[in-house]
Write a structure and sequence with these properties.
- The complex is a heterodimer of chains A (244) and B (226).
- Chain A is an all-alpha fold and 244 residues long.
- In chain A, 79% of the residues lie in helices and 0% in strands.
- Chain B has 226 residues and is mostly helical.
- Chain B starts with 5 loop residues before the first helix and ends with a helix.
- The chains are: A mainly alpha (244), B mainly alpha (226).
- At the A-B interface, α2, α3, α5, α6 and α8 of A face α2, α3, α5, α7 and α8 of B.
């Protein structure tokens, strides 16, 4: 796979042109360029068509985009008909989005953040922040390299390669860890802020928190947590203005 | 707010720009997470504790966000940098609430500016549609660099305007102690509700909910013992 490292580095900026029409499309095209370079000398017409296909609509979790990128690039070199490559690309959007989001956004990131926040609340200062950054970026780099290689090695059979891979098992394991880490962090962080405030203040804060959970759950999209917070702050300022 | 020299203000604007870029565009290394953005901003302003307090507060808000698909969400990165600058050098119990209020407004503005950048990206792509249809690699590169530049400008402007607002608040707004403390308690309560609601939502009703409850019990025991 020539241009693999350049393609990997460009994948880090895959969302650089994110938009509501093609989503990651142009970013995928940018990352595909080094991989498709050799095709220019083999078949210039095919290369041109491949570049056009690489910028079409695409969306998935950026950390697993390498699977689609590698697979479609390999398919271009294997002279697979263009409409089949386009179908493969479309078919990969949802599974790569769902798997990547579960693995990273709902799994690894809240797990690492939960432990880091708990450690800070227990008195550690810098190291949980550094630990979070190091562990996340190692996991993400290894996943990105694996994704690009697996995609390129599998070509049109990338779906089967994903199903047999470590990803489904990792998602099953990381979910409970994330749940535990979040559960661990919340009481510790709450205590960290409320210690020394006094019982009345602490109870008031917990009442605001309980109200926030209930109200934002009932009103959903209309009253997000940020809107609730801004409203609560505004009400407090008004109250203090009227009853100084 | 600690006295900011021009150099330290520029450093914060630079950091805010990097943090804004990291959220979506490049490299998504998670420096945009408030816990990281706040800690580094705290170190830059000479008050690491303020950075950690503000960072953790906004991290609790950010835990409510699942940035998947085309979902719209606030941008907490530059907001955390600015809020840390405002809170630095003052007792956190009295500074956190006001800086959280400014940070939340900036986070909402950051989210709106992100949508604007996405629309501008779409327009740029439409302008170069012919070149893209012809398979011109140079058009892809120009679009990509243009998108990154727009996002960097967004982050820089947002941080700079936020620092200006922080400076105005610091010089003009005088809160009595109980109002300042009340704001802090409300901000912490709202942040806990955001994180708690987010954790419950993502836990669902299965095994993860049981693990969430187990973690909460261990956390409570540690909180009592610590």
């Amino acid at each position: 796979m020539n241009g693999g490292w350049r393609a990997y580095l460009r994948l880090l900026a895959i969302q650089g042109t994110w938009n509501y029409e093609r989503m990651l499309g142009v970013g995928m095209g940018y990352a595909a360029e080094p991989l498709l370079d050799d095709l220019k000398t083999i078949d210039p017409v095919r290369h041109s068509e491949a570049v056009v296909r690489s910028t079409d609509f695409f969306n998935c979790n950026p950390n697993l985009a390498g699977l689609a990128l590698g697979a479609t690039a390999k398919a271009e070199y294997d002279a697979v008909p263009g409409n089949q490559i386009a179908r493969l690309r479309t078919a990969l959007c949802s599974p790569l989005g769902a798997l990547g989001d579960q693995l990273f956004w709902a799994g690894l990131i809240p797990a690492l953040l939960g432990f880091a926040m708990a450690a800070i609340a227990l008195g550690a200062r810098w190291w949980p922040v550094l630990g979070f950054l190091a562990l996340y970026n190692i996991a993400r780099a290894l996943t990105g390299i694996w994704a690009l290689r697996t995609g390129y090695d599998s070509g049109m059979n990338v779906g089967a390669a994903i199903a047999k891979s470590w990803i489904p098992g990792a998602i099953t394991r990381v979910g409970p860890v994330a749940g535990f880490a979040m559960g661990l962090a919340l009481p510790l962080v709450a205590t960290w802020y409320l210690r020394g405030i006094g019982w009345a203040g602490a109870l008031g804060t917990l009442a605001v928190a309980a109200t926030g959970v209930a109200v934002t759950r009932w009103y959903g999209v209309a009253l997000t947590t940020v809107r609730f917070a801004l409203l609560a702050i505004l009400l407090l300022v008004l109250f203090r203005g009227i009853f100084p | 707010m600690s006295e900011l020299t021009l150099a330290s203000a520029l450093l914060l604007v630079g950091w805010g720009t990097l943090v804004a870029l990291d959220l979506v565009s490049v490299p998504q290394a998670m420096i945009a997470r408030p816990i990281v953005a706040g800690a580094v901003a705290g170190w830059m302003t000479g008050d690491l504790d303020a950075g950690l307090r503000v960072g953790l507060l906004f991290e609790l808000f950010a835990l409510d966000v699942l940035p998947v698909g085309a979902v719209r969400y606030p941008d907490y990165g530059p907001a955390t940098v600015v809020a840390t600058a405002l809170a630095a050098g003052a007792p956190w119990q009295f500074a956190l609430g006001l800086s959280a209020a400014l940070g939340l407004v900036l986070a909402v503005l950051g989210g709106l500016s992100l949508q604007l950048v996405r629309r501008l990206n779409a327009r740029a792509i439409q302008r170069r549609a012919a070149a893209l249809s012809a398979g011109e690699s140079s058009a892809i590169r120009r679009l990509q660099y243009g998108g990154l530049l727009r996002d960097a400008l967004r982050g820089g402007l947002l941080t700079a305007l936020g620092l200006l607002a922080a400076w105005i608040i610091d010089t003009r707004v005088r809160l009595d102690g109980s109002t300042a403390l009340g704001l802090t308690l409300v901000a912490v309560g709202c942040a806990l509700s955001a994180a708690g609601g987010g954790a419950l939502r993502s836990a669902g009703r299965g095994a993860r909910l049981r693990w969430l409850a187990a973690g909460a019990v261990v956390g409570l025991v540690l909180a009592v013992l610590a």
